[in-house]
Design a protein that fits this description.
4 helices, Methane Monooxygenase Hydroxylase, Chain G, domain 1, elongated, mainly alpha
Length: 92
C-alpha cells in the first residue's frame, strides 16, 4: 500500500477544500469583485495547494527515502529531517 492510499481520506479532504476555494475564486470573478478581494482568495488557494504538496512530499520522503524518526543511520535520519524542514519552509 502506498502512503497516499494510507492517507487517502485526509488528502481527499484537503483536495475538496481546495476545490471549494477554486469555486470561490470563480464566483468572485463572476461577481466582478475587486482585484484585492480576488488576490486574497488566490493567495489562500495557493497556500492550500502548497500545504497539500508539502504533505505529499513529506510522506514520500518518510516512506521512500528515509524516515527521520525510525532510520537507524543518524546521518541519514538527520538529512531526511533537514529535507522535510526545507520542503515545509519552501512551500509555506
Amino acid at each position: 500500500m502506498t502512503h497516499t492510499i494510507g492517507n487517502k481520506n485526509k488528502l481527499i479532504a484537503r483536495v475538496r477544500r481546495i476545490k471549494g476555494q477554486v469555486e470561490a475564486v470563480e464566483r468572485a470573478l463572476e461577481a466582478e469583485l475587486g482585484c484585492a478581494d480576488v488576490l486574497m482568495l488566490v493567495a489562500s488557494l495557493r497556500g492550500a495547494v502548497h500545504g497539500l504538496s508539502a504533505e505529499v512530499m513529506e510522506d514520500h520522503i518518510r516512506n521512500h527515502v528515509a524516515d527521520p524518526d525510525t532510520d537507524k543511520d543518524p546521518e541519514r535520519a538527520k538529512g531526511a529531517a533537514e529535507l522535510i524542514e526545507v520542503v515545509r519552509t519552501y512551500l509555506k
